[in-house]
Amino acid sequence: MYNYYIINTVVTFEQETVSSADVVERIAGVHQAGLPWLVAELADGPPAESAAAPADGPSQQAPPELAPETSSPELVGYAYATGWKSRPAYRYTTEVSVYVAPGREGLGVGSALYGRLLPEIASLGIHVALGGITLPNIGSVALHEKFGFHKVAHLEEVGFKFGRWIDVGYWQRTL
User: Fold this and answer.
1) What does the alpha-carbon distance between residue 45 and residue 101 come to, in Å, rounded to a whole number?
2) For the sheet containing 93-100, what is the strand order?
3) Lower CB count within 10 Å: N or C terminus of the chain?
């Protein structure tokens, strides 16, 4: 799913596709930092959420009401939190990201993921969540504002992809 965004959009500034092993390594890194990486899966009903476990770690099961109904659900999105900066004074601030499968936008997947991710990071003692959004991105701005984020920065022409300069905005929510 992420490679679609790398190849076709400016939502991410990565320009080289990633392997499954790369993704597993990233998930493990998020978990090693003590932060959540959640996935949303679609079986025969509404989006179901579960926590992605590190490759060599135990599986973290979703609550029963969110568990997939079949053995081969479709991945429809994921969300995670990472440390924002490496200096110790920033340890209570995270950057949150959400990706929804192409064609599944606007169906509540992002809301389901943020509805679980934000309370989870708050329970870990995180004080501020930041969302970096390439602009324009009406859907992502709407999602963040729905969850109480407000715009705190607009960085002009800080990325270059597909032959054009790209702005990035930052949205912030105190948890």
Assistant:
1) 16
2) 48-51, 37-42, 74-83, 93-100, 128-135, 164-174, 150-161
3) N
CATH 3.30.70.120, applies to 2-126: no
Domain ranges of the chain: 2-126
Q: Which of 133, 144, 141 is nearest to 170 (CA)?
A: 133
- Model confidence pLDDT, tens digit, residues 103-152: 999 999 999 999 999 999 999 999 999 999 999 999 999 999 999 999 99
Give residue 66's pLDDT band: very low, low, confident or very high (50, 70, 90).
very low
Q: How confident is the model at residue 43 (pLDDT cuts 50, 70, 90)?
A: confident
Cβ(48)–Cβ(73) below 8 Å: yes
